[in-house]
């Protein structure tokens, strides 16, 4: 249920998943900065921030039922897929959990973008 208008958003599941993914990416970003092999994680750290920001923007656009929300969510799915791919290269628990959140978000964004 939306917060301000108390209506049920057709995008609510995707909004929630985008918010979860952004949080997971920021948490993983912080954890990766504290790993001993931080240099090896350069690409992963970069995509984590890009993914988090994309998810935040997708959530915002869906919340306002924006004209290009579906297009944006298609791109968000691609970035989430890439982030999951990068995270799975590292065996840390935080990277594995983040990869799973990214995959879930990508799936939900694709589902939302396909809505009529």
From TrEMBL:
Superkingdom of this protein's organism: Bacteria
Entries under InterPro entries matching the protein: Csp_YhjQ, YHJQ-like
Pfam families for this protein: Csp
PANTHER family for this protein: CYTOPLASMIC PROTEIN, CYTOPLASMIC PROTEIN-RELATED
Protein name per Swiss-Prot or TrEMBL: Ferredoxin
Naturally occurring in which organism (per UniProt): Clostridium polyendosporum
């Amino acid at each position: 249920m939306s917060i301000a208008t108390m209506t049920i958003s057709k995008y609510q599941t995707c909004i929630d998943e985008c918010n979860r993914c952004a949080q997971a990416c920021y948490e993983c970003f912080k954890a990766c900065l504290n790993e001993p092999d931080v240099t090896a994680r350069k690409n992963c750290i970069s995509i984590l921030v890009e993914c988090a920001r994309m998810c935040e923007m997708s959530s915002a656009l869906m919340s306002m039922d924006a004209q290009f929300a579906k297009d944006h969510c298609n791109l968000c799915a691609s970035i989430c897929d890439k982030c999951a791919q990068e995270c799975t290269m590292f065996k840390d628990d935080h990277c594995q959990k983040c990869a799973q959140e990214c995959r879930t978000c990508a799936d939900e964004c694709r589902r939302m973008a396909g809505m009529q």
